[in-house]
Amino acid sequence: MPTIAALLLDWYDQHARVLPWRGIHDPYRTWVSETMLQQTRVETVLAYYDRFLARFPTVEALAAAGEDEVLKLWEGLGYYRRARNLHQGARQVAEEYGGVIPSEPETLMKIRGIGAYTAGAIASIAFGRAVPAVDGNVIRVVSRLAGIRENVGIPSVKRQLTREAEALVPPDRPGDFNQAMMDLGATVCVPGTPSCERCPLREHCDAFREGDAEELPVLPRKNPPRVIDYDLCLIFSRGRVLMRQRTETMLQGLWVFPMLEGCREAEELRGALRRETGLTAADIQSAGEARHIFTHQVWQMKLYAMTCGDNQPAAPWRFVTLEEMASLTLPTAVRKAVAVVRERLK
Fold first, then answer.
1. Is it true that domain 2-215 has CATH number 1.10.340.30?
2. What is the dihedral of CA 333, 334, 340, 342, to 10 degrees?
3. Count of helix runs (H) and strand runs (E) in the chain
4. 104 is catalytic
5. Stated pTM of the model
6. Running DSSP on this structure, what letter comes out for residue 151?
7. Distance of alpha carbon 273 from alpha carbon 276, whole angstroms
8. Which letter, b or e, does each residue of 132-167 get, where b requires 16 or more Cβ atoms within 10 Å of its Cβ?
């Protein structure tokens, strides 16, 4: 085990990715970066990290902010539940821990939005605790190193994998070691065919010896995402467009246009919109199509532009100007619709 740690840290010292959240021991900044990096590419996060911290430089500043402002700064990063959990977690730290982020993983996991991986990352990187931070990259590296050939989704196998990862973490530089494991999984021990010839640990790797690294880890099968057809309706009136703020769990707090599941003929669409918004649509015209892929859903959208009379929409719908729309948090899923609205209202 010490040999593996020494080899990996030596490799990390030479090949570590240069990232703005590296080389610091600030638990808040580690928390922000690790939250942003969940299910999101490093290249994408780079455009958000500094801007977010410029506005919310401390956990107290984030706790004092309104949710709408937090979501607006997160706009385009996706998986908005992460932003809400980070915001609520910051408020919890302010209220329950006097604004001081705890150092122990067990305590960290009591904070909203912090799971075992993020707790391990914060504890090891910011506080030097010799604990693992087991994400997808680490699961892949450890599965291959230790030759774990069972489904890593099985709880007993997952516990075994965590024990193996924990045994690897050295008492010195545990944060660097965990980040080295992440880098190794992201750049060398990649999914599919790894670059074993470049790996500093290949002589200690069971999968390299057995020649089955491409087959590991054994992952649970995923159900294919459900495809949902939507009619997305852009209803214009007096230089404004109709929108509402979602209260549903998915994209909660974000602003959207009327979306009706299923593809309808014009007259059927008009009746469905009347029931949904209280407005009577006229001059219905096709405005193109759009597609957005979520983790578990695919939205296949037909866009329609239309006008309506001077009636007031039913709550929670309201008309917004182009300037007002710019201040709202909009999901990436409606990006094409937003472009149509901007072109029309200009």
1. yes
2. -120
3. 15, 7
4. no
5. 0.87
6. B
7. 5
8. bbbbbbbbbbbbbbbbbbeebeeeebbebbbebbee
Q: How confident is the model at residue 309 (pLDDT cuts 50, 70, 90)?
A: confident
**CA–CA separation, 3 vs 296, rounded Å?**
41
Catalytic residue among 34, 164, 166, 323: 34
Kindly report the length of the chain.
Answer: 346
* CA 150 distance to own-chain centroid: 27
- The β-bridge partners of 261 are 230
**Closest Cα partner for 120 from 27, 37, 183?**
27
Task: Report the share of the chain in percent with pLDDT over 70.
Answer: 99
Q: Hey, where are the domains in the chain?
A: 2-215, 226-345
Phi, psi of 151 (to 5 degrees): -60, 115
Strands (E), 94-214: none
User: 226-345 adopts what CATH topology?
Assistant: Nucleoside Triphosphate Pyrophosphohydrolase (3.90.79)
Distance CA 240, CA 318 (A): 9
Name the token pair of 68: 């709408």
Tokens of 103: 């150092």
Amino acid at 110: K
Q: How far is CA 67 from CA 11, 90, 305, in A?
A: 41, 12, 31
205: number of Cβ within 10 Å? 20
Mean pLDDT of 312-324: 95
Condensed to tens digits (0 to 9), the pLDDT of residues 104-139 reads: 999 999 999 999 999 999 999 999 999 999 999 999
| CA–CA distance, 71 with 55 (Å, rounded to integer) | 12
In the three-class reduction of DSSP (H, G, I as helix; E, B as strand; rest coil), residue 248 is classed as: coil
Are 93 and 63 in contact by the 8 Å Cβ rule? The answer is yes
